[in-house]
Amino acid sequence: MPSFRYRAVTQFGKTEGGSIVAADYALALQTLVAKGLTVTFLQAAKDRGETKKKASFSVRPDDVVMLLREWATLLSAGLTIDETLAICGAGGKSPKVVAAVAALRRLVRDGQRLHAALRELAFLPREAIVLIEAGEAAGALPRVLDRLATDFSQRRSAQEGIVTALLYPAVLLVTAMVAVVMIVVVVAPNLAELFENSSGHPPARVAALLAFCAFVRQAFPWFGLAAVIMAVSFAVLSRFETWRTRFDIFILRLPFLGGILRSRDSARFAAAGALMIECGVVPTRALPLAATAMNNRWMRTALTNALGQAAQGAPLREALASARALPADVLALIDAGVQTGRLAEVLHHGATLHAARATARIQRFSALLTPAITVFAGLIVGALAYLVLSAVVSLNEVAFQ
Fold first, then answer.
1. Do 164 and 140 share a structural domain?
2. In this structure, how many other beta carbons lie within 10 angstroms of the beta carbon of residue 124?
3. For residue range 60-99, what is the model confidence (pLDDT) as tens digits?
4. Which of 43, 76, 150, 392 has a C-alpha 20 to 30 A away from that of 164?
5. Domain count, the chain
6. End of a domain among 93, 120, 152?
7. Is residue 390 a contact partner of residue 205, using CB atoms and an 8 Å limit?
8. Under a CB-based contact definition with an 8 Å cutoff, are residues 286 and 344 in contact?
9. In DSSP terms, which residues pair with 243 in a beta bridge?
10. One domain for residues 121 and 162
């Protein structure tokens, strides 16, 4: 029976870790939650005799979608996983894809399940591996792979749209920053030198500009040092689960970004739960597995803990509401789905609703960002240009006196 390594927070706020033996990931998670633990990390433990580190592969998102589609088609046609991987690992693909599929096939032929091999090679997101594990357990792997391919394709299209919308504001902001740096580093020192060589004094606004530019040039190394210290501190603190959870709570409290992230994680939870229930996984196991598909650690642990309370006999709606991890409309949909026996259908509706809501908020943000950056950059560069021209005019007046 496989072993799983875990880290969890007790009811008294203490962090503990260890290993647990269970038949699969879902049972290990349920066992830990039943003990009153809030699980923050759970992963299959490697064999003690394994000393060589397995390679990880970076596969392009478009290639991932292509592989998932091929796997779904071939498995639906009755081929085994080994035969499917042999066909998909043939020529005609990029070297990275061929190497990744070959490594995946070796692990499968050594006796590992597909989800375990994918988790070890790490070229699919965590939520995708969770769904593949559920598909294997329910005997609905081709359907899960096809749904994952569709979901990845839609997510890729949405990301490309966001990048395209943010490209112009980013170029505009970089251009404005380059203009400001040129004024501070090149123009201002030359103007200051000219005023020093002349007998006149610059106007107050020009003197303030020159003093500010001199301060920025002198303080720039300290700004860089502070940025490095902040980056190193963030990297060190990110190793601690408690701090990472608190940071995720802080992100959720941000006025605009928090709503987007909450909607996206709610959509992932609902979509994963709907797919696993449709594939035959009972809701008591599907919902805890679906919670692991969420990226926000606080939402994931709070929801896992609430589902553990529900497994011990607490009403599902009250347990989920006490966690405060899901929006109110998702809670209402889950309650209605449990009462009507159509949980998969209402979860799918909730996933569609919140995915659309997150996309709309991102599009609204990008639409507002372009004019905001345009006005901001125009004001900054325009003000500096005005002060520089004022300095030039003042210098000419001093020269003709």
1. no
2. 20
3. 888 888 888 899 999 988 888 888 888 887 766 778 888 8
4. 150
5. 3
6. 152
7. yes
8. no
9. none
10. no
